[in-house]
Records
---
Amino acid sequence: MAAGPAPAPAPAPDAAPERIELRLPSRADLLGVVRSVVRGLVEECLDVRLTEEEIAGIQMSLQEACINVVRHAHGNDPSKPLVIGILAGRDRLVLEVEDFGPGLPATPPPDPDPANPREGGYGLFIMRETLDEVRSERRDGKHVLVLVKNLRRAAPGVAGGG
Amino acid sequence: MDIALRQVGSTVLLSFVRPVNLEGDDSILFRDRVKNLIADGRTRLVVDLGQVKFIDSFGLGALVSALRVVRSAGGDLKLACVPQSVEAVLRLTRLSSVFECHAQLEDALKAFQAAG
């Protein structure tokens, strides 16, 4: 019996990643710190290397989620903590932004229309365009916006370059 | 946020003096600065974005607001030296066709001159 190439082992399920938590006062001027932290984490801690465009998309989405919390849900009140949970798994990066507000609007703003450009309403659109999943949850009386980025993985044995 | 103004003929060139993030309250300062110029009758504006390191939805909103006000006053606002990262956000939010963008300040100024 001829032995063919051994089948590739099925990938192990993604183990539950450890949750990293950022907790800051609800201040818009601190959001640069949040962007820097998530960039550092993405660059240093993930198994895969994301493109600059993907990293910028993650940073922008997190910015939009956080500025909504700071401005709208927490009314720029620094005594209300801005809490961001980061779960950097092998298959996906999950960002959880918590707030004490009412959550996402029941009717999301319409997509941007170049024929009639709006002065606002880009945040959710940016998140949905740059991430793989955006969902709103209720946990222990809090609203949690869950942002998910699936992580591409290079096929085994495929060399880069060209 | 320090914004330098330079009058070139009938056009006003707005430049950020140092690297900035066009986000949150800084966006409002920028928008109000532009609106004050328009209130002064200066309605041909070139905004040099070369020093903008990051822009969020508030920054985008400020640019759109400034554009709408200047156009309703019969003028126009052109962008120049748009960094790649900002250009990507404009493209993502379908605003790249809304703004006239020029690689160089001189090109934006010439575009106003050509328009008469």
---
Amino acid sequence: MRHLLSIEDLDRPGIERILDRARSFTEVSEREIKKVPALRGRRVLNLFYEASTRTRSSFELAAKTLSAEVINFVSSGSSVEKGESLKDTVQTLSAYRPDLIVVRTPHVGAAELVARWSPAAVVNAGDGKHEHPTQALLDVYTLRERLGALDGASIWIVGDVLHSRVARSNIQAFTTLGARVTVCGPPTLIPRGVESLGCEVRYTLDGLDEADVVYALRMQKERMTESFVPSLREYAARYQIDGRRLGARQILMHPGPVNRGVELSAEVIDSPQAVIGQQVAAGVVVRMAVLYELLAGRTAPDRQLVTA
Amino acid sequence: MNAARPDVPRVSEPLVHREQQPADLLIRGTHVLDPRAGIDAPHDVLVRDGAIARLGAPGSLEAPEGAELIEGEGRHLLPGFVDPHVHLRVPGQEHKEDLDSGTRAAAAGGFVAVVAMPNTDPVVDDATVLRSLREAARREARIPVGFFASVTRGLAGEALTEMAELADAGALGFTDDGRPVHRAAILRKALQYQRLCGRVLALHEEDPSLSGAGVMHEGEISARLGLAGIPSISESTMIARDSAIAGYEEGRIHIQHLSARESVAAVAEAKARGVERSRDERRGEAGDELARRTRGRISAEVSPHHLTLTDEAILERLDTRLKMNPPLRSEGDRRALIDGLRDGTIDCIATDHAPHAREEKEVPFEEAPMGTTGLETAFAAVYTELVVPGVLPLALVVEKLSAGAQLLGLPTPRIAAGERAAMCLIDLDAEWQVGESGYESRAENCCFAGRTLRGRVLATVAAGAVVYRERAFALSAA
């Protein structure tokens, strides 16, 4: 594997290899000196065109724990605001000879373009509403730690599927590992044709009790103004996961950041069923494993591959 | 019909081009296929001083003194194609295309006349702009070019242009192409005004409240890619609305670039209604037969890319050259378009040639402007994907590639003695890779880039002059 642009780049053994490696990295965080020299001398460039707290910091922490050098490039205050195109930015930053670029953009397919324009390995850290493959990996990692295996598990993804890259990557990762996926939300927020990803569609939470895992998505406030839902109140009344709806043996997940009182009630966020903190912790070891997978034992990228 | 201002002379010639040396040619032993003239057999074709002088049996004609001899054996001679829908980007966007490069691309595709859309900068919304544009075309255009003017000033959808004066100044028709005429009342007024100024109203059908921020067809592929979709109903509901208004006002509308199955059905319904209406009227009403025949008439066009590609191509590669408006839709839509072309619901093929500069298309998919070039690949794409596999007969495709002329009141190219030569010589067996040796267009945003197509235009004669020779063919002839 040269890049991680989509969760489709990984088959089941590929996902399992990364999860196993991530597990072996948990031990590093327990040490007094939280660092291993695996990627010493390698350069990782964080290229973030969108605000991000946990994804960017966990990639940075992952890279530094593996002893790589990290350069952070965020769009505000940069040449992007002076009108530089993505292509020119990528080619300029490629002059720093990064071995790997982590890219987050608001545009579908932008990570693929970065991979085309730079000789570095590329990790997609979110491209518009398309994909967020490392989120999917850390979610399956978290679930595997809890359940042992995902085979046969029933996972409900609840909320704004239409605008969610997490949903798109996770449906594929969950089904690849043998789970059954149901997406559930208001019809205005379920994309037409989403069944083609291999999931079932429901418009109400009736039947949620059959789920082993409830994965709630973030409900963005701006969706109200576009009439996707009439009000947060109506949304919460029908789709909020609260103490009544969440069973004692179900696992509750959320990609964060949470809108308390909208998609989740405060009681379930702090409940024993919630693994939201574990998801964040998994983010670091899973991203370490991804960086390791793409960089360890590989020579520096071939400059000849740079295309105009 | 009166000129809006009596002091401004009315334009008599609808198409303009630069002066070129009239051709003297003998094309020997070529297979002439002109479905309208009922010719489908090998002939010698003699062109003298730009006009078709004689058609004879193969080997029967001699090249007169000074005439060029072209070996036509194994090649097809077709009536030249006419494209009622291209963007030449002049004035104001010459970095994308200009009159010379755009008409060079057209000639390379076998086209002998094209009609340019008015969504330029400034918009062709007053007679001064139109006149200067026609002047420029008289200097630069390699093949005859006609121009549409906009329906509304600045394409803003608010106020009608001076349609009567524009018609007198040479506007072939009116369109806000690139955008719909969003307000029904404005469209209705334009159709009422059409009784004064004539000309066709060509409509880009899209309800912006449904298409929204969409960048591709709404369906399984957009769901997978997380891209905002443009639903088929954003097109078909507007066709239903506009054909109802046109029927009420007995106006003449032309629906541009159909893309969806539902749209084909909407046009078919409107056509069926139109036929009933004229039958009723024929009973009582007197008056001009031609006016009566075209009144309440609706016609429609389809592009080569909508006939041959689907949104699956975008899943294979998120290529901005595949981004256009209307978008590539599903296989079911594509089949409905083919059926519509076959059964006459769709009248003609039009490329919607929409050039963009490289830097404009070298951006993420959502950021890229809509549009693909299409003049150089139109015949080969349709021939390769639809004629070779036996989906459509060659004669039908040839006819539909020039059928746009009649819809706009332009002469239809014919291969017959006495006609001014407007034709193209094609090697149906020649395979070529699109873009491999560049483009004649200034732009590279061709949705067929990299595909291997069959059918190569070797030479084009437009308005009586040789306007294009394929490179290898020109060398071999020399």
